[in-house]
Amino acid sequence: MPILATLDDMQYQEHILQGVSRTFALTIPQLPPALCQVIGNAYLLCRIVDTVEDDNALSAEQTRQFAEMFVAVVNGEVEAETFARTLYPLLSKHTIPAEHDLIKNTPAVIRITHSFNPAQRRALERCVRIMGDGMVAYQEAESLAGLENMAAMDRYCYHVAGVVGEMLTELFCDYSPGISHNKSALMTLSVSFGQGLQMTNILKDIWEDRKRGACWLPQDIFLREGFDLNNLKPGCSDPGFHNGLGVLIGIARHHLHNALAYTCLIPPEETGIRRFCLWAIGMAVLTLNKINQKRDFTEGSQVKISRRSVKTSILITSLLARQDWALQKLFNLTAKGLPENKSSSTVI
User: Fold this and answer.
1) Comparing C-alpha atoms, which of 58, 45, 62, 47 is closest to residue 108?
2) pTM, rounded to two decimals
3) What is the DSSP letter of 161?
4) pLDDT (tens digit, 9 = 90+) per residue, 154-207?
5) How many CB atoms lie within 10 A of CB 145?
6) Contact residues for 129 (Cβ-Cβ < 8 A; gap 6+)
7) What is the largest distance, in Å, between two alpha-carbon atoms of the chain?
8) Is the separation of the CB atoms in 41 and 13 below 8 Å?
9) Which of 207, 220, 214 is nearest to 154 (CA)?
10) Contact between residue 106 and residue 83 where contact means Cβ atoms under 8 Å apart
11) Rounded CA separation 72/66 (Å)
12) What per-residue confidence (pLDDT) applies to 6?
């Protein structure tokens, strides 16, 4: 029998979303009311997994233990209070205050999780399990040498983002029979959608990741261009590195084109869901443009899109949300200067 979440729990979820992600705090309210609560909750669950993975005060063994414990919490096998009480004192200053607060209030988040219908809970539980397993495995393999090849990058992106796309698709299909009609195609494209967004974040965060000893770039792409990622330093002007970035930008662009195809499979009358997707795609394409134009950037802030660009993208995509032909034309226009590349194994 579903647990009843309290009004305080609901208010906390809405409040903490503002603290841990301005982007999702902006996009989630565009969704139909029946989806807002479950997708907001899903984001917080993923953020808790991410907090466990990112906090550098935790040993590899502690990270594994807490990731496994949290999966059990979501499944209803371990008390959320036990998880929060054990993890909260161990968090470092590296973890932002809002995430400290999120961990402390895990029980409120989980009460909402456990109030959902069986299909929603299965989708959330699967996502958290796969994401937790993947993040722990990749954290143990972190190095400045990069991932072995593009296939390894595909797998990494699946564990941290592709599986989220699958979860969202399950939730969309549970919500709407009209969306469920295209479920098979949506599930395939959802992985590509997630990878496009994740690759954009990886490229934007190259230097911040390196500061904490991680590199998620694929060695083989750069070695083919004559560059060894072991030699990568801020301000790198080596043509081989810049060419390798161009290849990855092209792959990410193609994934985002698949994301647009995904969005166009959502019935036009579901404008809220379309806006939720389109705003993410628009911001990612604009970020790729910034990276492409400044491949010698040395920190993420140099390729961060302006608030004005965000507002413009939101306005235009919202106006065109129901018109597939116009969205395709807008994508082609916005992504016009980006390289094109389809070499990733998960590209449709």
Assistant:
1) 45
2) 0.93
3) I
4) 999 999 999 999 999 999 999 999 999 999 999 999 999 999 999 999 999 999
5) 13
6) 71, 74
7) 60
8) yes
9) 220
10) yes
11) 10
12) 83
